[in-house]
Every structure is written in C-alpha cells, then in structure tokens.
C-alpha cells in the first residue's frame, strides 16, 4: 500500500517523505533557463524575491546553480533550499551564503517561508496522484500572493524534462523540454511526465493525444533532419501550433528544445 504524506519525525515537523536524492550537476539547467527567460519580468517585478528549491537531494549543487542563474535576472534574489533529510541540510549549510543562499529542514509546508517562486523537481514521483494533488494544494497555500510553483520531472542528466506551472488558480501551463538530438520521437518524454500526468498517458486522455500529435509532427518534419535535430524540433513545434494546439511560446524558445502549452491542453 502506498504511504501517505506524513509529518516527519523531528523538531521541524517537515511535511513529506525523503526523496531518493539523486543529484547531478546541471541536471536542472533546462528548467532554470526557462525560468530566467519566461519568468524574467515576473522575477524583476517581485516585491520580495524569495525563491525556494524544494527537495534538492543528496547534493545542494542544483540549488547553488539555480541561485547563480536567477541572479542574472534579479541580482538580489534570495534562494532557500529545503530538504527533510538532516544530512542533506547540513551539506547545504556547508555552501550557504546567507541571506542570499541558505538551507533549512522543510517539506511541503515550506518551513514557514513565503516564496514568490518555488521549484520542486523529482519530488512527487514517489506519491500517488491523489497525494501529489494534495501536495500542490499544501504548497500553494504557503506561497506569497501571486506566487508560482514549477513542479516537474527530468532524467538523471537533464536531457528530458517536463513541468507544470501553477498559481493559486491551479495549473496554468505545461512544458516539454529536451535535447532534440537525444530523442527518437517526442513521446520519449512520456517517461518523465509529472505525477499529475504520467498515469494519464493512455488513449482517450489529452496528454496522450498531445504526444501522439507531436510525434506525427516530428514525422512530418523529417525533411528538416539534414539541418539538425533542433531544426526538426522547431518545425515540429510550428506544425503543432498550426494544428490548433494552444502553444504559448515561439521559435526563440523552440530552438532551445522547449514547447509550452496551456494546461487545458493536457488536463486530465
């Protein structure tokens, strides 16, 4: 039987369960690049630029990298890494630079922080769908007004990623991101769908229809293959938009191996 989220033992009473902890340098570069690009104005306009990295794993390296990348958009950004495992918190403390970069024990309750932006990657895969939705609600209830959550999943080296952008109104956008030369077809990303979608990749569900349509666009874009996988990905994205899918970005983002759509396009 799947375990339900619980308050972990200890003084911090952090809500959730420890993750597997797998961490590699640059693993989350694609979502960081998307945030510094797509959310640049959001960050620059934030009254209090506190950003939380939830469940950073056995090494704080991806939290450090995120802080460095966000500073290119908002130099006074403050980044807080949260982990339930005390050994992981201590590893973070060893590289902390308060108040700009700090680490604390915490889970879905966010350790009392009220961030304007929260990144939670590879955190919810161990939960059931119901538990994942409950975690969304818990985190959203602790965000600063107008705050955003970026929740998703990627492979071990960060070449295949998907994520959901959420606000207090619920899911807003869904993003696919990859290294185009590292896939056979776009549906290869299915194994990295977030928990809210990974069990919905079956006929009759919107996310399954999206991946099937994107594979069809990829096949149609085969004449672009001699110009490289990136050119083929860009043409696939253009075709997807031309077929009526609510694609929100443009060629500049497509060239980075991304496609972002309205959440309604894949909502279960």
Explain how this protein is built.
This protein has 268 residues and is α/β, with parallel strands linked by helices. The chain folds into 2 domains: 16-158, Rossmann fold, CATH 3.40.50.150; 180-267, no CATH class. Helices cover 31% and strands 19% of the residues. The chain has helices spanning 29-38, 40-45, 61-71, 86-93, 129-140, 195-198, 206-220, 229-242, 251-254; strands spanning 50-54, 78-83, 101-105, 117-121, 148-154, 160-167, 170-178, 258-262. The protein has an 8-stranded mixed β-sheet, sandwiched between helices. Strand 4, helix 5 (129-140) and strand 5 (148-154) form a beta-alpha-beta unit. The chain is globular and about 50 Å long. The two termini are 24 Å apart. Mean pLDDT is 93; it is low at 1-12. InterPro entries: SAM-dependent_MTases_sf. This is Methylase.
């Amino acid at each position: 039987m799947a375990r339900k989220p619980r308050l972990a033992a200890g003084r911090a009473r952090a809500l959730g369960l420890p993750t597997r902890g797998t961490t590699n340098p640059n693993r989350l570069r694609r979502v960081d690049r998307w945030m510094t690009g797509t959310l640049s104005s959001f960050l620059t306009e934030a009254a209090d630029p506190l950003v939380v990295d939830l469940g950073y794993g056995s090494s704080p390296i991806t939290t450090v990298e995120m802080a460095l990348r966000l500073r290119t958009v908002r130099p006074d950004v403050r980044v807080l890494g949260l982990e339930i495992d005390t050994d992981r918190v201590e590893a973070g403390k060893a590289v902390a630079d308060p108040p700009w970069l700090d680490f604390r024990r915490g889970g879905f309750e966010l350790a009392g922080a009220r961030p304007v932006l929260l990144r939670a990657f590879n955190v919810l895969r161990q939960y059931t769908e119901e538990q994942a939705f409950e975690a969304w609600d818990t985190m959203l209830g602790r965000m600063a007004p107008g705050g955003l959550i970026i929740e998703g999943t990627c492979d071990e080296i960060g070449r295949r990623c998907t994520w959901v952008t959420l606000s207090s109104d619920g899911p807003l956008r869904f993003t696919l991101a990859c290294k185009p030369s590292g896939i056979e077809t776009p549906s290869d990303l299915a194994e990295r769908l977030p928990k809210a979608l990974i069990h919905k990749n079956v006929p009759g569900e919107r996310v399954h229809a999206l991946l099937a349509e994107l594979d069809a666009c990829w096949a149609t874009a085969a004449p672009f293959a001699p110009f490289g996988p990136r050119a083929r990905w860009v043409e696939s994205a253009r075709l997807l938009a031309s077929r009526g899918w609510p694609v929100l970005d443009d060629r500049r983002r497509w060239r980075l191996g991304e496609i972002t759509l309205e959440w309604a396009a894949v909502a279960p």
